[in-house]
Amino acid sequence: MPERKPTTSADLPLSKLGLPGAFYQLHVQGAKSGEPRTTPSLVLPDKYRVVLTLTRTVTESHKLSFESGVMGDSYIHFAKPEKERRDLDVDEMVVFYGHESTRIELRGIANPDGRLSKLIVETPAGSFTEAETIAFGAASPFLSSLAFGLDIPIRIAQMDVTQLSTSFSSMTYTCPYNEIVPDAGEFNNAPYVQSLLSLYREGINSQSPNYQYLCWYKIVEGINVKREEETANLKAALPLKFSERLEGTKVEQRKRLEEAFPFIKACGVSDSAWDDLVPDEVLGWKFNRVRQHKLEPLRNKIAHMISEPSGDLSLSPDSRENAREVTKWISLLRFIARVMTMNESARIPVGQLFNMPQNPKHIDEMRGAFQKPTRK
Question: Is 50 strand, coil or helix?
């Protein structure tokens, strides 16, 4: 027996966790202290164990734990509380999923309160990606059926995958938000700008990547429509405070990310931690080119699935492959929406309604100025 139990969780610097609200995958290889490091294989024909841990709330913990260290919870109550269970009482849910030649067995585990906490799938696969696709493709439709039948939300907190012969593991998680100190200053409350800010907040408040994508794409789309009208009247390009072109190198692009995201500015951009937010294939592209060739086709698939009477239902959130495509582009879309909104806020002249004092001695001065009646 080992003298110490294996470590199943770790504290990582906030900057290494990623952009708050974004989706990430962490790969981990277990090893004994002092052993030489080897490069694990993501592509290996093997049997894989996939665990989807459920949650009732949004996580606020910045400490990553594998599923063995996460309790899991839901609104699905199917077993007695642990302290009341007897040997013959139910403590697991078994589901058999069949589609064409695919046959998958799902095991649902009850938490100490008797609620469904995890779904477990063991399946042969050729790689981590294939194992995720198989397990998610079976478990997620089942959860959607339960959500509809019971009329309750069912949220997946994280997904863990393990190669059983090597114990090499991966964890898929949503990076939690952290506390930020606001700066004092003036805030543009023009109705047009406020509508953009409201859409952005609607996006970051949502737990649905597809809905987030639609909110942030609508910001970009709405700004372009308004600018077309203004440009036609002015017969000239509009002055913009921030460049609307991606930089040609990752190093330069990091500075742009720092300019747009308060969290990244607080963490700094001295290393490559943020390089995955902008795919290499679009470096140096103008925002509109990215929108037309990369963002709009994906937006159309999502929107048409929801809004068109005969919409294509192939971009289902229950598809792991579709989720990967949305994840690939959603952080870049978020960045573009932020920069364009910053430009609109800077160029739209308006008397600010929101004004935060720089320090306490300015409060009475500003209060008097605010309450003083104006002459017409």
Answer: strand
Kindly state the tokens that stand for 220.
């970009």
Instruction: Choose among 214, 185, 180, 182: nearest CA to 200.
Output: 214
| Euclidean distance between CA atoms 325 and 61, whole angstroms | 26
7, two tokens? 């470590």
CA torsion 164-165-166-171 (nearest 10°) is -20
Residue 95 vs residues 103, 218, 293: alpha-carbon distances, Å: 11, 40, 41
Please give the backbone phi and psi of residue 271, each rounded to the nearest 5 degrees, phi first: -125, -170
Nearest to 288 by CA among 342, 211, 227, 359: 227
Residue 74, both tokens = 């839901």
CA distances (Å), origin 209, targets 101, 150, 194, 326 = 30, 23, 23, 7
Q: How far apart are CA 226 and CA 192, in angstroms?
A: 10
Per residue in 242-262, pLDDT (tens digit) is: 999 999 999 999 999 999 998
Burial bucket for residue 336 (CB in 10 Å: 0-12, 13-18, 19+): buried
Phi first, then psi: what are they for 272, rounded to 5°? Answer: -90, 20
Q: Torsions phi, psi of 52, nearest 5?
A: -105, 115
> pTM for this one?
0.81
* pLDDT band per the 50, 70, 90 thresholds, residue 235: confident
